[in-house]
Amino acid sequence: MNVWNHANPQLKDLVTYKPGKPIEELARERGMQPGDIIKMASNENPLGPSPKAVAAMTEALSQAHIYPDGFGFKLRDAIAKKFDVGIGQVVLGNGSNEIIEFIGHAFLKPGDNIVTAEHAFVVYKLMATLFGAETIEVPDPGFVHDLDAMLAAITPETKELFIANPNNPTGTMVSMEALERFMDQVPDHVVVVIDEAYYEFVPEPPDTMKFVREGRNVILLRTFSKIQGLAGLRIGYGIGPEELIGVLHKTRQPFNANSIAQAGAVAGLLDNDHQETTRRITDEGRTYFQTEFERLGLKYVPSFANFVLVHVGDGDAIFQKMLDKGVIVRAMAEYKLPEWVRISVGTMEQNRRCIATLEQVL
After folding, report:
1. pLDDT class for 4, splitting at 50, 70, 90?
2. In what order do the strands lie in the sheet containing 191-195?
3. b vs e for 104-127, b when ≥16 Cβ sit within 10 Å of the residue's Cβ?
4. Where is the PTM N6-(pyridoxal phosphate)lysine found along the chain (predicted)?
């Protein structure tokens, strides 16, 4: 039997998402010790999770035999209070990626399309393809979302439009002024998804919550994976008008956010000291990287996030050579950027080793 005679046809040519190479995998492949490898590929928090989150998760482990709160009341309530919205305006996801899937379930069908920037997070296109929808990729001069061009790309079949701000993998941003102009013009039949996975790294991020308060057709995506250091728990959230979030809840599986993740996220959300320390280390590391790239004569994209996109000539080759020396970065060919790599900010010790290795292999 040829399974493709029965499987959904749009899956056949779908290229699956490639996560950053795990330390353990590289250690197995190259016969290295995991402790000798540093990972600068996945925009993770080099400090790890908040100690308060670790304590909360440890306590929650004793109740691991009990199903989690399927409605995530404590975490949704904490998020709602932090951002001054109603609890009915918050939905939890197994990572914010799952909420992208909820939005697809809610609004996409074959023949529809989504609009996104050419060099935006590749998962938007992957999810659209899963639902049989097409993706309109709009050129982004200077790697910045061109909101006017994205508006012009909207068709009657457009159901979703994604703005990643700051954007992954470029680290660029659009301003609040540009977002306001855009939101005033976007048609009512389009759900605008503003992906703010990295917004906590921005000193004065756009007040996108304003669009939620105004009842616009918008969903904000946020995550505990980055500044909170809880990437391994897969926990994220969406905020939007209550009616829109209510639709997403209908697409959500029961118990999609596990109890350990919920407990850690509540504690981490309230640990401002850990977030401030992470911000400071990120600012220092990002500045260091960009200064070193200038010293090395490498073109880079000034970043607002916890990573920097840098032009190295042959991204895959540099990626492989750095792997040989126990340093994992992220090649960018899947983003149609074969001459670039993305490097995440680590501790200063890791940052210095990464730059020394990069200089050695160039």
Report:
1. confident
2. 90-93, 236-239, 218-223, 191-195, 158-164, 113-117, 134-138
3. bebbbeeebbbbbbbbbbbbbbbb
4. 226
- Asked if 166 and 132 count as a contact pair (C-beta separation under 8 A), the reply is no
Structure token pair of residue 84: 């001054």
Pairing state between β 307-311 and 300-301 = antiparallel
Token output for 86: 């109603």
Question: How many CA atoms are closer than 13 Å to the CA of 17, on its beta-carbon side?
Answer: 13
Provide the percentage of residues in the chain whose pLDDT is more than 70: 100
Three-state DSSP class for residue 344: strand
pLDDT band at 160 (very low <50, low <70, confident <90, very high): very high
| Predicted structure pTM score | 0.95
pLDDT digits (tens, 9 = 90+) for 74-114: 999 999 999 999 999 999 999 999 999 999 999 999 999 99
* Topology adopted by domain 17-48+273-361: Aspartate Aminotransferase, domain 1 (3.90.1150)
Facing residues of 330 across strands?
342
pLDDT in tens, 121-148: 999 999 999 999 999 999 999 999 999 9
What's the first-to-final CA gap in the chain, in angstroms?
49
Unique residue bearing structure tokens 């910045």 = 144
Residue the block writes with tokens 């982004």: 140
Distance of CA 260 to the CA centre of its chain: 21
Residues facing residue 138 across a β-bridge: 117
* The CATH number of domain 51-269, selected from 1.10.3720.10, 1.10.357.140, 3.40.350.10, 3.40.640.10: 3.40.640.10
Cα separation, 358 vs 361, whole angstroms: 5
